[in-house]
Structures are given as C-alpha cells and as structure tokens.
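Feature request disguised as a bug report, sorry. It would help if multi-protein outputs had a clear separator. Right now it looks like this:
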Amino acid sequence: MARLATINSVGGIVGPQYCVPYPVDLAIVKKVFTLTDGNFVVADANDNLMFKVERKLLSLHDKRVILDAAGNPILTLRHKVLTAHSRWQVFRGESSGPQDLVFTARTSSIIQFRRKLNIYLPYNTSEDFCDFKVKGSWFERSCVVYAGESSSPIIAQMHKKLTAQSLLLGKDKFMVTVYPNVDYAFIVALIVILDAINTRHDD
C-alpha cells in the first residue's frame, strides 16, 4: 500500500500547479567557473524562465533556494552535516521547520554517491524503502528518476546537452524530460541536489 501511495503522489509533492498532463522539457543552464558555482536557471523548451537557483555561500550550512520566475522562494534545500551519507532536507519556502519538510534525499552508498540517490517523503520515517530513486552518471548528464526502486516506473530523465560553445561562454546546459502528471518542481529540486553533491565532491 505504501508503494502504491508513492506512485499516486508523484503529481503533488511540491504542488499541483507544477503538474501538467503532458511531458515537460526543462533546459538547465548552469554558470561554471564562477565564484557563485551552484547558481543556475531553469527554462522551458521555448526558453521561458521557470525557476532560478541560488546558492547561499554565507550560510553555516550548504544551502540552495529555488525561486519561481517572479523571484518567490518555493523550496529551500539544506545539507545535513556530520552524516555518513550525503543527506539533504527540502522545505517549503524559506522554512527549515519539520512541519514544512517536503522530502529527504541521501546517497545510497558512501562510495557510489555519484550514481544513486534515494528520496524519502515525510511519512517514511523508517526509510526501509525509498519513495523515489535517481540512478545514472552526473558527469555524463545521464540520470533517470524512478518512482520507487529502479524496477518501478520512470518519471523523469536527464539528457546531455554539453557543447564547446557552452563551455566557451562559461555555461553548462543540459535537458531534463519530466513525464506527464509528474511534479516538475520536485524534479528540479532533485537536479539541484545532484549538482550540489557533485560540487561538494569537487571542492
């Protein structure tokens, strides 16, 4: 029953306004080789701005904030320090209170942290099973998001979109396809966490 509830809840994790009955292609454009590494923008297939991501460099914790196109914060992502696995907690708005927890994400292995990410919704306090899983290679920009374990339905995929021109301009661009009726703001949050884990490894 818990696994069925997970699959049925894909469409309303952040909010129903981020769910549409057709696939959504997102273009992720990240500034590279800058002091604000971790800041990037998310646009739709027509280059319309959808989200902005800001890394809070002066925070005691590694923290990212996802803002909508109007600049309103919709999610705050906080890295939990002093844990064996890389663990992130995602809250609504700019909150950090347990009542506003949206989901928790952690690497499934200390060694293979760049390949697997397990996601747990707030009700899943035991974390005996993951509600969602991300598998793939971040370096190759080739990742798949599953509703549950890797044998479960695919809800989003990342595609490599790296060109020599983008590197010369100091930008890294890649595409993410979000499947119909899947919360695309939730998928963006997962991409931000993957980027943060990779950034921390490179620091």
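(second protein starts here, but nothing in the output says so)
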Amino acid sequence: MHRETEKARINRRTLFRLSVAGAGTAVFAGAAWDAALAASAQPGTSPYGPLGAADVNGVALPSGFTSRIVARSGQAVSGTSYLWHGAPDGGACFPRDGGGWVYVSNSELPVIGGASALRFDANGTIVSAGSILSFSNANCAGGPTPWGTWLSCEEIWLGRVFETFPQGGTSAVSRPAMGRFKHEAAACDPVRKVVYLTEDETDGCFYRFRPTTWGDLSSGTLEVLTATTGATGPVGWARVPTPAGLLQATRNQVSAAAHFNGGEGCWYANDICYFTTKGDNRVWAYNASAQSLSIVYDAAQAGANPPLTGVDNITGSRAGDLFVAEDGGNMEINIITPDGIVAPLLRVDGHSGSEITGPAFTPAGDRLYFSSQRGTTNSSTAGITFEVTGPFRV
C-alpha cells in the first residue's frame, strides 16, 4: 500500500499561507541594512517612542501598545484543560489551519522539556492548546521551517533537534543528521536550502545543515563556519566529519572552525542570517550571498550604558526591524532598526531573576508573543507568556 511521505502530509493550505507570509518579509534586507552592517548599531530614539509606566501586567510599553497574559506555567490555558509548561523558552508563530495562528513555545525544563502550542482564531481567542513534543531535555530555542514545522533544540551535551508539528496530529521526529551538540537556535535559508544552527558554548560554532532533499531533514551534511581573518570578513564552510559528536565534540572536529562566545538566537531574512552571542553581547550578520561576517551590534561599542545586554533570542519583523530579547539585563526586548538604531521596545518589571524568551510575530505582524521564563519568583514553574498588540511597523 502506498504510504505518504512526512513532507507530503503537511497541509498544503499551511504551505500556501507560509509562502504568502514569507513574501511579506521580502523587504527585510535592503539598502538601509547594507549601510547598517558597516558599523555597530548605536543607542537612539525608538520609532515607537519612549516606554511608559508598566501596565497591570507589569509590562512597560510605548504609547498605543497593550499587553495581555495568555498562559502561565502550571495553570490551565484559558478555555482549555491543558496545563502550560514550565520554563517557556524559544518560540515561533505559524498560520493555523482554518484561520488564525499558532504560537509554539519550548520548555527548558530538564528531562521532561518538550514544546507546546497555543492555537488562536482570527480574532485572537485561544481555541486550543496542547503538547507537540514530550520528554525531550532542556529545549531552549529552535526555529520555524518554510514547510510549517518547528525545530525544537535541546541545549545539553549531545543535544538533539526535533522536528515538531504545530497544527497537531503528527508526532515529533528526532533529526540526528543535524548534529548532536549543545543546540540553541535554528534558521532556514530557502534560497540556499540550508538550515543555520547556533551552539551555546563559550567556544561554540556556527553551523549549517544541507538536507539531501529540501523539506526532508532526515539526511544531509552538517558544515561548520570557518574563518582565517578574524571575527569579521570573508568566511567559508567545512564539513563536520562526525555529526554525532560522541567521541569528539563537533566544534573541535575542524581546525579552521570559527568560535563564538555563547551562541544564542538565530534569524534569517533576505540572504542574511543574524545570530547573537551572549558571552560578548553581540549581534552578528552572516551574509550568505557574499559569504562574509559582520557585527550588527556590540554592547562594548554602544557607550557607557548600552541599552541591550544579555542578548539572547532574536526575531525580525516584516518592516525590517530586528528584535532582541534579554537574558538578564533590565528585562527588555530591544529593537534594532535597519538604519542602526537600538532602543527598548518593551520592559518587564519585577522579573529581575528571569529572562525574556521566545519573541515571535504573528503572520500578519500585528501581535508579538514572548515569555518571562521564570516570572516574578525566579522559578521555572512560574513562567508567564505574554501577547503585545499595537501599531507595529509592517
């Protein structure tokens, strides 16, 4: 009997909506970003204006923006019986079958980790919630794929990448060909048909995975970024001999590999893969077309009181802005504009022992989701997931 492939089972309507959403991001990298990449972003005035006083949810926002809490760790999601997971981390949004959207979120809890999904109708009402991955280990960040799946990454020694299905109804699948290391985030490049991967080690590497067949992550080649001229400039790629990494860590298998201090978030748009390194508070840009590396933001170059520290998860908007969440710092999400301005977009007050995780825009770009991983009590069981609505630039 004929058996459909995993890829063929993905709903075609979802693929269509993803292609439309992807087309909307085509303006992300343009002449302004080309100029911005020539120098580190500097503090300036946000296009949204200054932050006001914290609202009833403890979120300080610019004028015209509002927040709501959509989930709390250990509590049933509104309108459902599903208990939201602890330690919410990386996340992404997807168009939902039947209209609306889905927000997925990892759990960085050890041993029981996994990932969950919140499903919204077109009006923003939660219609269902549930698990899309169970009993993995310390799932930190990840990334969406163009075919509508979520790559959930384990941040442990010999960590795995799981491909999960936000719409539900399909079991998650481990993708060992993508390497076994302390994974952080992933970003897909549909032009070159590769997936970029970051590694959260003090001497971690920046990788790309070349699937044998685009859309099928079961096999392929893992490569590591190489450099001979220092932190920026021309770079290359070399194959990782043993992606399983059991006898020798993947980051140590290629002598020419470039090393980065604590790889974190990862975001691709228009030939550029942006990624963050928390150890030195930098946002990097790998230009895939030119095969060169530059620094978008460096806290050490942003004055005596840099607005963005503890750089972590990163996402982008259809208008071309980057949004970087802080792990620590003063618990902000900062915007980095294409003309090189960095400024706070929001701040969560009273969460000093936590970190901001999982920033992601809806397909329409008018709502932003994120979490405070440990809430106000600095406990992994006290995470809070927020939604922000407002006049985002699209």
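Even a blank line would do. Unrelated, but nice: The longest helix spans residues 12-24.
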